[in-house]
Description:
heterodimer; A: 277 residues; alpha/beta; 10 helices; globular; B: 322 residues; 8-stranded mixed β-sheet; 14 helices; 9 strands; 48% helix
Amino acid sequence: MPWFKKERHLLTDPRKVKFPEGLWVKCNNCRGIIYRKELVRSDKVCPKCDYHFPISVNERISMIADEGSFHEWNADLSPKDPLKFKDTMRYADRLVKNKEKTGYPDALVIGGAKMNCQPLALAILNFSFMAGSMGSVVGEKLTRGLERAKDEKIPFVLFSASGGARMQEGVLSLMQMAKTSAAVARFQSEKGLFISVLTDPTFGGVTASFAMLGDIIIAEPKSLIGFAGPRVIQQTIKTQLPKGFQRAEFLLEHGMIDMIVERKSMRDTLIQLLSFF
Amino acid sequence: MKEYLDFETPVMQIQEKIDQLKDLGKTNSRKLDEIPKLQKKMEELQREIYSKLSPWQITQLARHPRRPGTSDYIKLIFEDFVELHGDRLYGDDKSMITGLARLEGRSVIVIGHEKGKGVKDRIVHNFGMSHPEGYRKALRIMELAEKFNKPIITFVDTPGAYPGVQAEERGQSEAIAKNLWVMSQLSVPIIAVVIGEGGSGGALAISVADQMLMLEYSVYSVISPEGCAAILWDDPAKISEAAESLRLTAKDLLALGVIEDIIPEPLGGAHYDPKKMGELISKTICKKVSALELIPPEERVKQRYERLRKIGAYTEPASSPS
């Protein structure tokens, strides 16, 4: 046993989202070149166009919850391969690969937390795990979380980032939309407050179920949010999409969300909102 | 438009021969003698082909151009149908039919996707792909059902929600999500019958039910085999594999615990005998409505929640700390 244990955890934490290596990073929105250190300093927000880069689950928790207050629920709930699905790769292998990549068994992290000493349920969809797609585990964890928040009479705050329902679990994924929406309905019928925060990107079966059912819906600036993906729409209508289509600002303009909140003021905004209820 | 599928061709050829013989029989009655033999041959062939249909072939049957749709079943199953139009917010989506009807004497609410027949009619009905106003019309009618305590029967037959600019602008996702929310809370009996194609969120938006039924050759899936092949295989030619992998047939859904029952179809599929198909659906839903009406409303909502609650496959260590 060595005398000094090298603390490698911080450098190789697999739970950290993969962030482009190198000194410079290209913005997903304005395509501008940003100095990497500057991007990290600004909570991963593009200084040129205000685009909010995806962040890891841990980064999100530390930005939102009181320090050390988050404790995960149902952390061991793990996916199965009910359809024995195989495309170019077996679903079972894909799951293993994504677990290794992210350090989590599936795409939703949920738990109890405190914000300004007030308890709440905090759920975060992890886009790094199979594009944050919803299969049975995401549906079940979210449903259990909503049931628990209902029993404990605490508000429910959710950060979404997802490509939609997970194809590899077929119709079982589709039915999670109904299951989670039913759980939201029960929670809200008991006067539970549900704040849904949409981040870049949130689509398909996630927007068409719980994510758009928030009592209050917030989005991060410039996030792409919609039902059908822009490529699918373009293939269908065969004309150019309008400028800014499906961006958070577009949704605000069309009355689909309550507000757009910058990452740096997200925690304060949430605290302020909760204080009204 | 081609009105029959590749695997139907051998059957159609015999059918054509029978029709020819019938014509000839008008002048030469001896020609008619051959018909029973041919008919028997046709049935045998049909039974053989249909006993080993692949999931992709079943998908094709579910989308068959001659397959009866919601408007056909409304005529075949109900009396006194009165169509109700519009969502009171934006417009009247013709891909969704809603109205009042009588089922064996009791008044019910009927909601269903309509794909349309023939090119012109299909365009009018947008091929069964609804915009938000379609789902909101369905929602309005469901709330009417709740207010006056009428059972809801829905017919599911859509490739999916329409992926377009206006649909997004008017809140396609919110419209679908809201329906899932409300349907899970309604206290009246809800029966969903998948009659053809159950495509993703657009299908789910009218199929949160106490009892979900599928016709033998209908499909219900999170994504179309075409879409799945394009995304996961990056190869549109892999449709058949995708259809296989997705487990989208009625038998699959019964095995996965997503539906309660399969309604068998006449030999060759619903389009060979729509009247018989209508009778079979009618018999099943009458029985189901009667059974559901015996359950107290609160209990029905609870059971509907439990029904959804148990769908899914996951593992969990025996003593999961939380």
